[in-house]
Amino acid sequence: MIFMKSNRDAPRCGFSRTLIQIINETGVQYDTFDILTDEEVRQGLKEYSDWPTYPQFYVKGELIGGLDVIKELKANGELESTLKA
C-alpha cells in the first residue's frame, strides 16, 4: 500500500510519481490511498509510523519507508525480495 498525494494515475508530487514508477517496474500488485482526501489518516499515519513525510510505502502493514528507502533497496538489489516478503 502506498499512502501518497493523489493516486497512481495522477501523482501530485515528484516523490510520489518517482515511487510509483519504481514500484510499477517490479510488476508487484499494490493499492494507493490519497492522503489529501482524509486529514485524519494523513496526520494519524505520521504518528503511527513515526515517519513525517509522504509517500509512505507499506508491505503487509509494515512501513518500508519513503522514496529514499525504496531507491536504496532498488540500488542494493533488495527491493523485489522486500516487496514479496
UniProtKB/TrEMBL annotation:
Annotated CDD domains: GRX_PICOT_like (cd03028)
One of the record's GO molecular function terms: iron-sulfur cluster binding
Pfam families, per database record: Glutaredoxin (PF00462)
Domain Glutaredoxin: 1-64
GO cellular component: cytosol; nucleus
Keywords: 2Fe-2S, Iron, Iron-sulfur, Metal-binding, Redox-active center
GO biological process: intracellular iron ion homeostasis
Family listed: Belongs to the glutaredoxin family. Monothiol subfamily.
Protein name: (apollo) hypothetical protein
